[in-house]
Amino acid sequence: MKPKILIVEDEPTIVDSIQYALETDGFDVSCLSSGIPVMQLLSGKNMDLIILDIGLPDINGLELCKEIRKLYTVPIIFLTARADEVDRVVGLEIGADDYVVKPFSPRELTARVKAVLRRVSNSKTSAPLAGAFQSKTFQIDESKRRISYFDMPLELSRYEYKILKTFIQRPGRVYTRDQLMDLVWDEPEASMDRTVDAHIKNIRAKLKSINSETDPIVTHRGTGYSLKEGL
Ligand code: CA
Predict the structure, then answer these.
(1) pTM, two decimal places
(2) Residue 120 CA to ligand 1 centre (angstroms)
């Protein structure tokens, strides 16, 4: 089946060029010229990836991304025209998977789309997570809320389980402390930023007690954490 790509961009010449490039490469492409209809479209149709312009006529693309992220994990690549926007996207504060700065070649964008889709399919998150989730190193048993590491069950607290599960579902994806709080805490406002670090420290210690050779969690200074890819 063709991967489904949604382009949200108000400049027709850009839409035409990337739609053509993606369709030539075998993608099923849908287009919207404004942001507001995106949520409605997503509620009725699964998308494999969204290409999202930041400068939309009705809503800022960064704001729209936040809305999408509340409900969907669909990968998002931003189109941006300004360096100060790049800073915000690169900080990954809003959960972008990649970005492309205008002007760009359709070929470059297509390459980014393929790279992101490859990353996501490697982490097997494009399929709904039902029952046991398999990776080589980690096994998630959602019904028992249990994660095994090198076939050894980990004794995890509720939040440790949720954080580690989040990492395993998207290897390589960098999560900021804020994102982790939003994703796993029931009341994010009530917790302190440093709590995330404390939980990560505990998870690391538990992983290390099973295998001291490797530390699968990567710390990104000033940004957040990710799980190593290819585990
Ligand atoms: Ca625009």
Answers:
(1) 0.56
(2) 27
Structure tokens at 191: 């917790």
Task: Indicate the SS3 state at residue 39.
Answer: helix
**Residue ranges matching CATH 1.10.10.10 in the chain:** 127-227
110-130 pLDDT, tens digit each: 999 998 888 877 654 434 443
94 Cα to the center of ligand 1, angstroms: 18
Confidence tier at 101 by pLDDT (50, 70, 90): confident
Ligand 1 centre to CA of 51 (Å) is 12
Q: Which residues, by Cβ under 5 Å, contact ligand 1, an ion? A: 10, 53, 55
Cα 39 to middle of ligand 1, angstroms:
18
Which phi and psi angles does 193 have, rounded to 5°? Answer: -55, -40
DSSP, res 186: S
Architecture of domain 127-227: Orthogonal Bundle (1.10)
Domain with CATH 3.40.50.2300 in the chain: 4-125
